[in-house]
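Anyone up for a design puzzle?
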């Protein structure tokens, strides 16, 4: 049976859509989780942590085993994980917060397994255009965010979520329906891979040993890339997980106004622009493209933290959306092009370290959010909404006086703004590092992809034994 290159690539894109939908839908329903389980922003950050850290746990396990177990088996396992995780999330109110965390972890593991397969699969079937095709593949990450966000926007009016007082039962049903839509995408890519033949990775097909693959992970240049991946992943994914809550608070909008619109908007920019990632990487070099992206992302985050009107927020979101567009696929492309002997392991490690960092940022952003919210509360209001040292959404719902409600809204606005300002430091560091790497490669004649059958850059050729 021949390898159906196009079908495998399309299935990979839909699998990535499924992964992205879990992020955007969870971002939209995070406040509903807070109300149903009475969770502070910090505890909501732990939900994000479970969803994100399941990703690197799975990718680190699955990445080195892509050739041993087979891409098809692993992608099928990811499909089963998506289905099981969504079902467990829907029934979690019957069993409590621990099951919600566990179900979110299962979904995260399914997401990581998808990432472990689709990146080396794309690099293998398109060996002469890795960065370009990886950018096209990862255009379907924002594509999935858009699909999930638009579904949330369409479903919310059905349950009248814009009303001042939505019954708890109605709110609970609404987020369950939103989660259930993920099952559709999961089943589509599951059906598409049935009976398909999958290739060996480029590394395995070229006869590079597993020991050589692991040695690549210790090269100084790659370790520097891993550090940069942490900076870019937090910049891109950290705000995405909080955008619904943060933008609603910074703009002072009511419950019915969907902060998720900003995620849909920036994702739309990313979806279109990633189709041009290959062209821009060739024009400016991958590191030049990454340096420019970090500059735009940092400026966009700073502007968002001062944007308290919808028009200013959308303008700032445009700058931020452009900035974060090329981070993830270009980092994967550079990893595959500069260290091809590392195979699926290095691509898995790059994705895993990014998700570990973004996962750690979830509770961290939540703590900043809570700390600055509490700091900006009047003392009399803080005595009501701060319970056991933490901001309580349930206690907030008990406020009746308009002045008290306005005070909480203003405090949440300041907390949300300060959260974005703290994150903006990271892309500033990335600008410097990527700029230096771009200058380094220019001094050596320009950026070049390393051929797997050639001697890796900076390493002397081995002598053959006679």
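Challenge accepted. My sequence:
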């Amino acid at each position: 049976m021949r390898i159906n290159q196009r079908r495998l690539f399309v299935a990979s894109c839909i699998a990535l859509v499924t992964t992205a939908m879990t992020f955007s839908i969870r971002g939209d329903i995070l406040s509903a989780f807070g109300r149903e389980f009475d969770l502070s922003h910090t505890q909501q950050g732990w939900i994000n942590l479970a969803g994100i850290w399941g990703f690197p746990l799975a990718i680190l396990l699955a990445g080195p085993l892509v050739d041993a177990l087979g891409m098809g088996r692993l992608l099928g396992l990811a499909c089963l994980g998506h289905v099981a995780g969504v079902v467990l999330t829907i029934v979690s109110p019957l069993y409590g917060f621990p099951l919600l965390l566990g179900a979110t972890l299962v979904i995260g593991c399914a997401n990581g397994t998808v990432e472990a397969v689709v990146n080396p699969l794309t690099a293998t079937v398109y060996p002469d255009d890795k960065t370009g095709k990886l950018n096209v593949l990862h255009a379907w990450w924002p594509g999935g965010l858009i699909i999930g966000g638009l579904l949330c926007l369409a479903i919310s009016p059905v349950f009248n979520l814009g009303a001042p007082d939505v019954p708890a039962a109605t709110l609970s049903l609404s987020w369950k329906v939103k989660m259930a839509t993920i099952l559709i995408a999961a089943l589509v890519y599951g059906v598409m891979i049935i009976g398909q033949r999958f290739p060996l990775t480029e590394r395995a097909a070229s006869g590079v040993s597993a020991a050589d693959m692991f040695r690549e992970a210790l090269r100084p240049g790659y370790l520097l890339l891993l550090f940069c991946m942490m900076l870019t992943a937090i910049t891109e994914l950290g705000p995405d997980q909080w955008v619904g809550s943060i933008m609603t608070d910074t703009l002072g909008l009511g419950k019915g106004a969907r902060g998720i619109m900003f995620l849909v908007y920036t994702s739309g920019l990313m979806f279109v622009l990633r189709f041009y990632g290959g062209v821009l990487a060739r024009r400016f070099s991958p590191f030049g493209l990454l340096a420019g992206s970090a500059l735009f992302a940092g400026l966009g985050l700073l502007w968002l933290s001062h944007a308290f009107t919808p028009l200013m927020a959308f303008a700032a979101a445009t700058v931020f959306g452009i900035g974060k567009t090329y981070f993830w696929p270009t980092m994967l492309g550079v990893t595959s092009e500069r260290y091809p002997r590392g195979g699926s392991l290095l691509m898995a490690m790059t994705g895993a370290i990014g998700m570990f960092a973004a996962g750690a940022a979830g509770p961290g952003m939540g703590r900043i959010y809570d700390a600055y919210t509490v700091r900006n509360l009047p003392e009399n209001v803080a005595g009501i909404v701060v319970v056991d040292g933490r901001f309580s959404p349930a206690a907030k719902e008990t406020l009746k006086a308009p002045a008290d409600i306005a005070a909480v809204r203003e405090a949440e606005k300041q907390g949300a703004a300060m959260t974005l300002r703290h994150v903006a430091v990271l892309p500033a560091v990335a600008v410097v590092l990527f700029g230096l790497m771009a200058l380094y490669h220019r001094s050596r004649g320009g950026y070049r992809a390393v051929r797997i059958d050639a001697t890796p850059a900076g390493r002397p050729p081995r002598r053959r034994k006679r």
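A detail worth pointing out: The longest strand covers residues 386-387.
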